[in-house]
Amino acid sequence: MYGLRPPNVTIRVAACSCAAGSLAFVVSFPFLVVPSARAAPLPVAINPTRIEITASPGDQVESSFKFWNGTDTDLPVHLEGADIGPQDEEGHATVEREDATNSLKAWLKPAYPDLNIAPKQDITLPFSLDIPANADPGSHWGAMLAITAPVGQSNGAAVNVRTGVILLVHVLGPVTEKLILETVSVPRFAESPPIPIEARFRNEGTVHEAPQGTIEVLNIFGSLVATATLPVRNVLPGVVRKIGTSVGEGFWPGRYSVLLRTRYGASGEELVAKTIVWVVPWRTQGWKLLLALGFVLWVIVARQRFRRAWYALRTGLPPPKDY
């Protein structure tokens, strides 16, 4: 359910239903709280796990997410806004205090801060964002948390879950778009395709970027042998984000160039990087190489012995030591 949506408001959601057993990292968001190591996670889930919104300063935006109670009892749930911050370069986030410049915690207002959810029920939980008229243009992020009350289990443990939907808001206005391709890592030697490739992007702007890239693998003659696309991932301002994939299949030993081209931003700025990889199938084809080398050595030694024997037969004399 979406409420107020002015013409300049855009909302995108990332749908991902989560089973109870995988809730410990909903959207790479480690919120699961289990007081006892023997306690099992509660069967609850949210959908979507991420919502992206584009709006102007002063807008009020309404959105929602679904919460599923897979338990057999009524489940008290408390909703509240929270700050999140990047945990690593893999894109994981954790609940923590965020810089006020990027925080949207104060903008969040759940329609029902506290409620009971019936067993086996999937309900919609609406909330609103009141964007201040003086909000800084650019990206702001946070989360709407759903925190369950402790639930007792048969082993005596009490379990509660904190999970949530990530919110990424782009406030319209003058922004700086600057993405840097810090490194592109490809193994110097690979046994066989697919070849892993990892790119690290640093966002030095004020708005999140989602670079879109293509990967080309060229042989020593410049011919194209494989292509791939870089997964699209958001890179938050002030953050380094690692994005990886793999390219190629089949059997093609030799020296290859790996070319990465990425574009980002409204103007389609391009970033390009090139690196070299040697494909050497030493485990699967190494015995053939050793066999070939052995044959060459045998030919060299056998040829030398044949020459010495021929000399002895032809002259009747033993061959010289240097013959």
How many structural domains are formed by the residues? Answer: 3
End-to-end span in angstroms? 94 Å
**Spans where pLDDT lies below 50 across 5 or more residues:** 1-7, 16-39
Mean pLDDT value: 83
Query: How helical, in percent, are the residues?
Result: 10-25%
Query: Which CATH architecture of the largest domain is right?
Result: Sandwich
Number of helices: 1
**What is the CATH C-level name of the largest domain?**
Mainly Beta
Q: Given the helix and strand composition, which structural class is it?
A: mainly beta
Helix and strand topology:
Blueprint: E1 10-14, E2 32-33, E3 44-47, E4 50-55, E5 60-69, E6 75-82, E7 84-86, E8 93-95, E9 108-110, E10 114-117, E11 121-130, E12 138-148, E13 151-152, E14 158-171, E15 179-185, E16 189-190, E17 195-203, E18 212-218, E19 224-230, E20 240-247, E21 254-264, E22 269-279, H1 282-315
Parallel strand pairs: 4-14, 16-22
Antiparallel strand pairs: 1-4, 2-14, 3-5, 5-11, 6-10, 6-12, 7-8, 9-11, 12-14, 13-14, 15-17, 17-20, 18-19, 18-21, 21-22
Structural write-up:
There is one protein chain. With 323 residues, this protein is mainly beta. The protein folds into three domains: 10-171, Immunoglobulins (Immunoglobulin-like, Sandwich); 179-279, Immunoglobulin-like (Sandwich), CATH 2.60.40.10; 282-323, no CATH class. It is 11% helix and 46% strand. It has one helix and 22 strands. Strands 1, 2, 4, 6, 10, 12, 13 and 14 form an eight-stranded mixed β-sheet that branches. The longest helix has 34 residues, at 282-315.
